[in-house]
Design brief:
heterotrimer, A alpha/beta (about 425), B alpha/beta (about 450), C mainly alpha (about 300), A: about 425 residues, alpha/beta, eight-stranded mixed sheet, four-stranded antiparallel sheet, about 35% helix, about 20% strand, C: about 300 residues, mainly alpha, two-stranded antiparallel sheet, 10 helices, 2 strands, about 75% helix, globular
Chain lengths: ~425, ~450, ~300
């Protein structure tokens, strides 16, 4: 593997409201495992707040993970060993592998050689090029930093790179503001591959470009991958682009990877409810009868929903997905005191104590019937475990939730309790 | 019978800049029918945003409308600008242009926001960050239908409990909206019908609650000054409103009523908790919600035409899907026509009835949403579609060459330098729109003149 | 081949800069006026006798006819009390004022910019401390601070210039700090980091060149402001200049005669105002030239 991430997390401290409060943590990336092989294009797809941009920057060393390790150029068998040692808790053994392959805590020449072997192409071709430097200086920057070639050789290589990305050589002394968006992105790509890196992160490389220009850039990237056998991490929210370019796809939501596998299996046969909604949301060439429209908005990353972070919006969420007693209480309160108040003779009231929900002045059967009817609509009701009459009032207990883990399913990895039915 | 509500005829717009004169629109021909959703697609520089702004008359002072008409219901929206440009084409003075624009703005005050409105791409900058949502929606009502607001209030004052009970019974027995309107009018309660119907149609509360709210719409008490505003006739109210001291109170009365109507409008657009939302500020809402608010403001006064400029480009895919569903649902309910501008053909194919493709300041093809992907006629459309990546794409090709420099656009057909089927005639003659297979296309491959 | 292309582009860019600048008539006027002042200063410094000036560092009074005289052939701008020829003294004073203003602004800008860039780059506690220090300086009105320093150190021209430098640097620190902070976050800096460019090099290569040009513009604008402050302090007598030619001081000399001999007040005062105006126009013109994006 060219790049392998293990249990990567990145938390950003946010100032809390009060003066002496503990700083809150924005959990941008939460325990992510990811791998990219030589010459393979791995797609990371997700919406805003999914953490995909942060993940890209972590893997290329622009950010330091709060926990976890990023391995560079690690042989596959060593990686397998590492995973085994980690599971078995063989501390010395796995720490040895970390010392050798991890890109953290490297300095000096080792760091330099790692920097030479990876680079990143950003989304916005207007701000990723320093407006004060001309094209050839921009392309030569990584070459100068790596200190490999002599000045003449650097210049020659930069000119070759211009050819490689399809720009005429007399663009060499132009400035960024004299180029179009597509041309600037080509310069950014030339800079990215200048030092023959083995790993390239592409953060939304074509999102700011027109469709016809995008097509050219994507073809260019495929050509470069063929020629140099570079491993690429393609980050984008555009499913169409991923479905054309990627070999494998990772779907991210709220800082976690929820589904991962070969492109065809993810795009054409998605299993995770979020992936299904995402794929079906792509505006299509024909009317989609089975489009899934998600309610609600992207999750709060400071206090993400408990259990599975997708559960508040999941159309098939059930009992153990992460509903808290407060969430169920609020939904029940709305149902009993509002929507169905007349059926219950306007007398019922819903209360909550630490462990249970308590309903006064209501008929047990009617309450059960309401719950049954609204279950498919208001999914938090699935978390209700027991509804019973106790001491003149109705008491409702909730099931305990679980956090889903990544498990194998067909030839994908998926993080969803629907597929993780063993009680581990 | 299909009615045309917008007609654009041979519109040509140039921009004067320090770097030269950009010929942004070069003869746009467009007809929009009543109630249709029309998509305008194209890449950067094709002029689609300029077209949208021209229809609204929102051009900057360095823009000159060389020729062309924009007729909304047979009213020429841009006549003053065009006349000015045509007279002064050789010595275009920006300051005088600005004056003409100011005059035009005054003239169009009753049209913009009322008959035709626009939704922009970035909802965060289109909304005023220091005003509550409800206030911003109320503003739209106050400018265009202040009397309707007063009427509503008056209706509530006059309504009696038994009358409301009658209306409720009518609704429970399945009466149509027209019947309710008729009832209200015949009982001197016009203004009550929209309040009742908007509550009745909500699907986020129980019938009991809806009844409760409707039954509360009677015998409202008015403050001293409110009585003056509400009971005096239209002109008196307006002249009173100009008196300093009164104007503040007049505005407050209208704003409060505007907030109420805003809640009804938001619930019609299926925005949850509208009562809370109207008191919130733009930054407290998510991007998708803000865009919904923008659409609500655009629809507030039941316009004939709404122009949306890239309404979903700044949104996530799943939120985009919500907004597109919303737009689709509006079609039946509001009878408004929409022009949706987007660079994303797939988005347009989702919601639009017809799609127009723009290139080089002209519309080169107009087709139905099915045909645009199945049978694209214009070479540019064909190449554009084949540039869209899919899971089956093999060898994705862009379009050779580059977008023309609009300071010096090509002669004849704008696309000819990049067209694989270019013929001699393409280099010299401007192609006109022809009809072919229920399609409109502007290309010599399909003949010369209609 | 590569040298030719590079130079060709450079020349093209220079031409474009010139075009942009020259199209701004006001800026050109500003430039010409500022140049005139500078040339005067140079001549008085190097070869004052060309202008008939024998004592460039002193005002020469004439106690025989001390009353201000109106403009005449002998004294083209008239004289002021006590019998000082206005034209010659103004020419001398321009040199002095220009020198001290430039001193204050350039030193202040240099100190402030360095502190600002370093503070923003290091960040953390150091940044906080520097910001609090600048806050303190800002909360004191500059005139009071200058006066305080003056009382301690002495109220001559040199010490007052130093006082103004102390008052002036915080704004440059703030200015460059905010520029640096925003440039630091920009994508091209991230790209340089990813390409392996070292931290120090990034500062010199990317952050400074993007942070400094606005500073140059601010410097040109501040020259006018500082000269006005200087003249004011001299005018009110706070700066003790004895008989050193200085525009504010010159203006104050004519104050008692403002009704009978208005020229004694108007001419020196006008020279200050014209300079401030010219330098402002020049600064505006420079702004258009320097920002590469505004040129498009």
């Amino acid at each position: 593997m060219i790049i392998a991430g293990r249990n990567i997390s990145k938390y950003f401290p946010i100032k809390s409201g009060s003066l002496f409060g503990k700083p809150l943590m924005l959990k941008a990336v939460n325990e992510v495992n990811i791998e990219v092989n030589e010459g393979e294009i791995v797609g990371v797809v997700g919406e805003s707040g999914s953490g995909k941009t942060t993940l890209g920057r972590l893997l290329v060393g622009l950010l330091t993970p709060t926990s976890g390790h990023i391995f560079f150029d690690i042989p596959d068998d060593k990686l397998k060993e590492y995973d085994e040692y980690l599971v078995n808790g063989e501390k010395e053994k796995y720490q040895k592998i970390e010392r050798e392959y991890s890109i953290l805590n490297k300095s000096g020449n080792k760091l330099k050689s790692i920097r030479k072997s990876m680079n990143i192409v950003f989304q916005d071709p207007y701000s990723s090029l320093d407006p004060r430097y001309n094209v050839i200086d921009i392309i030569m920057e990584p070459l100068i930093a790596s200190g490999q070639l002599s000045s003449d050789k650097r210049y020659a290589r930069a000119m070759e790179l211009l050819d490689e990305v399809g720009l005429p050589r007399d663009f060499a002394y132009r400035y960024p503001h004299e180029l179009s968006g597509g041309q600037r992105q080509r310069v950014a790509i030339a800079r990215g591959i200048a030092t023959f890196p083995k790993f390239l992160v592409l953060d939304e490389p074509t999102s700011a470009l027109d469709v016809s220009v995008q097509a050219q850039i994507l073809s260019l990237l495929l050509r470069i991958r063929e020629k140099y056998n570079i491993g690429m991490l393609l980050i984008t929210h555009n499913i169409a682009v991923i479905s054309y370019m990627a070999d494998r796809v990772n779907v991210m939501y709220a800082g976690k990877i929820v589904e991962s596998g070969p492109k065809v299996d993810i795009i054409l046969q998605p299993d995770h409810p979020y992936t299904k909604a995402l794929i079906s949301a792509v505006p299509g060439k024909s009317v989609k009868a089975n489009r899934i429209i998600l309610k609600g908005d992207t999750p709060n990353l400071i206090n993400p929903p408990l259990g599975c972070s997708f559960h508040p919006r999941c159309p098939v969420a059930f009992g153990i997905c992460g509903w808290t007693i407060k969430e169920v209480y609020e939904d029940l309160k709305y149902l009993i005191e509002n929507k169905y108040s007349e059926i219950l003779d306007n007398k019922a009231s819903v209360n909550i104590n630490n462990e249970n929900i308590v309903i006064f002045n209501a008929n047990l059967d009617k309450v059960k019937k309401i719950i049954e009817e609204e279950m498919n609509n208001i999914r938090s009701l699935f978390a209700i475990d027991i509804v019973e009459e106790k001491e003149g009032h109705i008491q409702i207990t909730i099931k305990k939730y679980r956090v889903p883990k990544m498990v194998h399913h067909k030839n994908k990895m998926i993080s969803c309790l629907l597929f993780d039915l063993n009680d581990n | 019978m299909e009615q045309n509500i917008l007609l654009v005829n041979d519109l040509r717009v140039h921009f004067f800049t320090r770097r030269g004169t950009y010929k942004a629109l070069n003869g746009v021909e467009l007809i929009i029918k009543k109630g249709e959703i029309f998509g305008l697609a194209g890449e950067s520089g094709c002029g689609k945003t300029t077209l949208g702004l021209s229809i609204m008359g929102l051009l900057p002072r360095n823009a000159a409308i060389i020729t062309g008409k924009v007729l909304l219901d047979n009213f020429d929206l841009i006549a003053p600008l065009r006349d000015f440009a045509q007279k002064n084409i050789n010595n275009f003075n920006f300051r005088r242009s600005e004056n003409i624009i100011k005059k035009l703005n005054d003239k169009l005050v009753n049209i913009r926001g009322k008959k035709i409105s626009m939704v922009f791409q970035d909802s965060m900058t289109s909304l005023n960050p220091v005003l509550q949502i409800g206030y911003q929606i109320a503003e739209s009502f106050i400018v265009h239908q202040p009397n309707q607001l007063l009427k509503r209030k008056l209706a509530r004052v006059n309504a009696k409990q038994n009358q409301l009970e009658e209306i409720l019974d009518m609704l429970k027995n399945g009466a149509s909206e027209d019947e309710v309107v008729a009832f209200a009018e015949s009982n001197g309660l016009s203004g009550i019908e929209e309040q009742v119907i908007n509550v009745w149609r909500r699907n986020d509360m129980s019938e009991a609650n809806k009844e409760k709210i409707i039954m509360s719409l009677h015998s409202e008490k008015l403050g001293f000054f409110e009585k003056i505003f509400v009971f005096s006739n239209k002109n008196k109210a307006q002249s009173l409103a100009r008196v300093p001291g009164f104007s503040r109170m007049y505005k407050n009365t209208l704003i409060k009523e505007g907030y109420r109507k805003a809640v009804e409008l938001l619930s019609m657009l299926e925005i949850p908790n509208p009562d809370r939302v109207v008191k919130m500020y733009p930054h407290e809402l998510s991007g998708g919600m803000r865009q919904r608010i923008m659409i609500a403001i655009a629809l507030a006064n039941n316009p004939e035409l709404v122009i949306m400029d890239e309404p979903t480009s700044a949104l996530d895919v799943t939120v985009q899907a919500q907004i597109l569903e919303l737009i689709k649902s509006l079609k039946g309910r509001f009878n408004t026509s929409f022009i949706i501008i987007s660079h994303d053909l797939s988005v347009l194919a989702e919601v639009c009835d017809r799609i127009g493709i723009m290139y080089g300041g002209r519309i080169v093809e107009i087709s139905s949403k099915e045909d645009v992907f199945k049978k694209p006629l214009h070479p540019y459309t064909q190449m554009l579609i084949s540039a869209i990546p899919t899971i089956e794409s093999q060898d994705l090709r862009g379009i050779g060459g580059s977008v023309p420099d609009m300071r010096n656009p090509p002669n004849g057909c704008m696309f000819h330098p990049r067209c694989p089927y270019v013929m001699d005639i393409c280099k010299t003659k401007e192609p006109k729109m022809l009809e072919k297979d229920g399609h409109l296309v502007s290309c010599f491959l399909y003949g010369e003149d209609s | 081949m590569k040298i030719n292309m590079k130079n060709q582009r450079r020349i093209e860019n220079l031409k474009l800069s010139l075009d942009v600048f020259l199209s701004n008539k006001a800026a050109v006027a500003g430039l010409i006026i500022v140049m005139l002042y500078v040339i005067d200063a140079i001549i008085v410094q190097v070869a004052p006798s060309i202008l008939g000036i024998m004592h460039p560092d002193e005002l020469i009074p004439n106690f025989i006819s001390p009353a201000p005289l109106p403009p005449s052939w002998a004294h083209p701008l008239g004289t002021t009390y006590p019998g000082i020829d206005l034209l010659k003294s103004i020419l001398k004073a321009i040199r002095i004022d220009l020198f001290y203003s430039a001193f204050v602004v350039i030193i202040g800008a240099a100190i402030g910019s360095v502190i600002g860039v370093i503070s923003a780059t290091i960040g953390g506690l150091m940044d906080e401390i520097v910001m609090r220090i600048t806050d303190i300086f800002f909360s004191v009105p500059y005139l009071i601070l200058a006066l305080a320093v003056g009382f301690v150190m002495g109220r001559n021209l040199t010490n007052m210039s130093l006082a103004l430098v102390i008052v002036w640097w915080p704004i440059y620190a703030r200015y460059t700090r905010s520029q640096t902070l925003s440039t630091k976050e920009s994508t091209f800096v991230e790209a340089a980091k990813a390409s392996g460019v070292g931290r120090l090099k990034i500062i010199f290569k990317h952050i400074l060149p993007n942070a400094l040009p606005p500073v140059f513009i601010q410097v040109s604008l501040d020259l006018g402001s500082v000269m006005v402050i200087f003249s004011t302090l001299a005018f009110i007598g706070f700066i003790v200049t004895a008989s050193v030619p200085e525009l504010g001081y010159l203006t104050s000399l004519g104050l008692n005669y403002v009704q009978s001999a208005p020229w004694a007040v108007i001419f020196p005062g006008l020279i200050i105002t014209i300079f401030a105006l010219a330098v402002n126009l020049l600064g505006d013109g420079l702004r258009d030239v320097i920002d590469p994006r505004r040129r498009s």
